[in-house]
Each structure stands twice: as C-alpha cells, then as structure tokens.
Amino acid sequence: MTETIAPRSKQLKLPPLNLGKHTIDVPVVLAPMAGVTNKAFRRLCREYGGGLYVTEMVTARSLVERRPESLRIIEHDSDEAIRSIQIYGVDAVNVGKAVRMVVEEDRADHIDLNFGCPVPKVTKLGGGSALPWKTDLFTAIVETAVKEASRNDIPLTIKMRKGIDEDHLTFIESAKIARDAGVAGIALHGRTLEQRYSGHADWNAIADLREAIPDVPILGNGDIFSAEDAISMVEQTGVDGIVVGRGCQGRPWLFGDLQNAFEGSEERFRPGVSEVADMIYRHAELLVETFGDEAKGLREIRKHVAWYFHGYPVGGQLRSKMATVPDLASFREYLAELDHSIGYPGAPVEGPRGRAGSPKKPHLPQGWLDSRVLGDAERLGLAGAELDVSGG
Ligand SMILES: Cc1cc2nc3c(=O)[nH]c(=O)nc-3n(C[C@H](O)[C@H](O)[C@H](O)COP(=O)(O)O)c2cc1C
Fold it and tell me: Going by fewer Cβ within 10 Å, which terminus of the chain is more open, N or C?
C-alpha cells in the first residue's frame, strides 16, 4: 500500500549521481553490508527504486585466491545494470591484484574500497578503520587500486569513517589523498571507529568534507532511516548522493520512498502485515535461489525476521518460530498464522533500527597512533587483519 504524505514546504530534486563513466539516475547507494546485501536482497531493493546496489565486501586476498565464497559474493544478476562490488584489503599488492583480476575478467563495473570496518579483531592489527591513520599505506592502496581500475575505465570509490576518535580524525586528509589518486567518489560514514554504531552520525563532518572537496562526488552515510532523513542529509550537507545501510534492513521498499523523495513525489510505501509477509517470503525464496540450497537460504532469512516485523504487532511465539524456520513450507505456514488484516503501524516501524551499541575504546596495535607512517613490525601484523573478516 502506498500513501501520500503531507507536502513539504521545500521540494528536493537531486540531479543524477555521476561516478566516473556511470550516471546513476537516483543518487542513492545501498550500503555494502556483510551478510545482508547479497544478490537476493539487492534484487528486492532494486525492484522498488533506482540507485547503486553494492555487494557485501570481499577481502582482496580471498579474491586473489579465488575462494568460491568470494566469487559468489561478487556475482550479479544479469539485469544489474552497474555491477558494483566492495573490496577490503590491507596492502597495496593484494588490493592491486584483486582489482586487476576483477577488471581483466570483467567481473564488475564499479569498485568500492572499504576503510570503515570497526571490528576489534581487525583494527587491533591495524586494519579496517584503523588503516587510514597510516597515510603511506592508505595512499599506496588507493593509488594502486585506482591505477588498476583505470585500465578499463572502471570507477573506483572509497568508503570510510571520520577517523579513530575525535582526537584522531583522518577523513579530510584521506579524502584529499583519494582525490589526488583519482577516485570517482568518496563516501563518509559520519562516525569514528570509537563510536562503532553508537550515538549519532555527524552530518556536520559530512558537510565539512563536501566543502573541503568540492571537485569529487561526496556521498553521505549514517542514520538515514527514511526518505525524509535522506532529504535532510542532502539539505544539511550538500552531498551528491546518500548511502543507506541499516534503514533498509527489513524494509527494501525504502528504496521506493527514496526514489519518490528525490523525484519530488510525496508517495511513500506503507505496507501492512500481509504485504510484509509476502515480501519476506519472496526474500526467502530468493535466498534459496542465491545459495542454491533451501536449508542455507532459510538459515539466512532468520536474522531478517526481526527486521521485517520490527514495530508490527506480531506475537513472541510466532516470532521465535519464524526465527528458527527450517524450510519454505513451514515458513509459508507460519506466515499464514499472522493477522493479515493489520495495516501499517506508523511510528513503531520507523526510526533507528539495526546495530547500535555503545562506544568502545578502539583496539589498535601497540603504539599505532605514535606515527602516521607504517612501521615494519606493524606491516607484518597487518597480514592477519584480512583473515576471517566480515563487515564494516
Ligand atoms: C550488518 C552490517 C554489515 C556491514 N558490512 C559492511 C561492509 O561489508 N562494508 C562496509 O563498508 N560497511 C559495512 N557496514 C557499514 C554500513 O555500510 C554503513 O556504513 C553503516 O551501517 C552506517 O550507515 P547506516 O546508518 O545507514 O546504517 C555494515 C553495517 C552493518 C549494520
């Protein structure tokens, strides 16, 4: 069901987003989310609205080693117009090799590099969002990646956080390095590593970045949970586009709202229980297709149950059954038990969702903050920061 909201005093029509040779009509990017933004979820989101839909991240090393799971992650449906992938790596050689492989084998049309991961086991070795602090390493990775991508005119973008903490901000400096290296766009998640997913994203920092880097497309990320948030972000920061993560978890229709908003329309999707049930069942079917395995597909849908029904009056017992659903037939039965007459609940469905938590003192290698240049021992330690990683 759609509804027309009260007209805003100001209408916003944002021009298409240009990332290198690509023009993205609706300047909206689905944030890469490990374990979420696979082919199945991207398809659902795409069916609602335009934009750029990025894969989950893969590590450079796993790509170079051609691990089957990594090759699966960077696969796209044949109708994904711009095949966008995200790579995470901690050294220029491996990142360069991974980008070269993707480009030579024509596996993507756009590559994003992830410099935002806050996971302690990664940052304590100097990887993820700890990495941009070492400007020599950051420069080498970005320059190499851009060079390799440019062999086939593939635009390369970066995604990062503000810095390690408020006393160790890196984003303006990193953005200048990236601009000079020739990136096609820069996305900033307005939080520090220390904040992880807590508190609020700092949109002022995004505005500062916009001002400091007027000549490269800037994408604002953090705390966009509705089309109205997206409009506010653009109005407050002047960004060229927005990146949406947790806000679309369990709400692929948000991309419809975002497209409407950016086209100046006041139409918004307001699904009732019945529509949500249809959508999550379809999501499950697509996951089964994506993984080629019913049990695996159903294991994957379980975490989405809480997101889809967040704010809908659904009993605890039914929720727990759905959260352990073994197969499609059972899922269909459980969904039939829902009260399909319940409409859109309004406010309870809206607002923040997904990961939050509290700030944590960053885990960094001993003495990491003492120098902006990577030491030999630190270089050795970094190798482990690419093993077994998932998420940003
Ligand atoms: C479950 C989950 C997985 C994520 N995985 C990645 C990832 O693989 N790469 C990345 O750059 N960021 C990752 N992120 C961070 C998001 O892309 C985004 O920057 C962050 O959630 C802030 O945006 P939001 O407020 O719209 O959620 C992840 C976030 C979540 C919640």
Answer: N
Q: Token pair for residue 152?
A: 């086939």
- Distance (Å) from CA 222 to ligand 1 centroid: 9
Computed on alpha carbons and rounded to an integer, the radius of gyration of the chain in Å comes to: 21
- Write down all domains in the chain, each with its CATH number in brackets: 17-269+357-386 (3.20.20.70), 273-343 (1.10.1200)
Q: How far is CA 132 from CA 34, 124, 140, in A?
A: 21, 14, 11
List the one residue out of 136, 71, 137, 150 whose CA is nearest residue 103: 150
* Torsion, CA 159, CA 162, CA 163, CA 165, rounded to 10: -150
Over the chain (392 residues), the average pLDDT of each successive run of 10 is 67 87 97 97 96 97 95 96 96 97 98 96 93 98 98 98 98 98 98 97 98 98 97 97 98 97 93 98 98 97 96 95 96 98 95 90 95 93 77 54
The answer to whether residues 333 and 346 touch, using CB atoms and an 8 Å cutoff, is no
Q: 40, 117, 244, 298: which one is catalytic? A: 117
Q: Taking a C-beta distance cutoff of 8 angstroms, is the pair 172, 212 a contact?
A: yes
Best mutation site among 29, 33, 73 for ligand 1, i.e. most ligand atoms within 8 A of its Cβ? 33
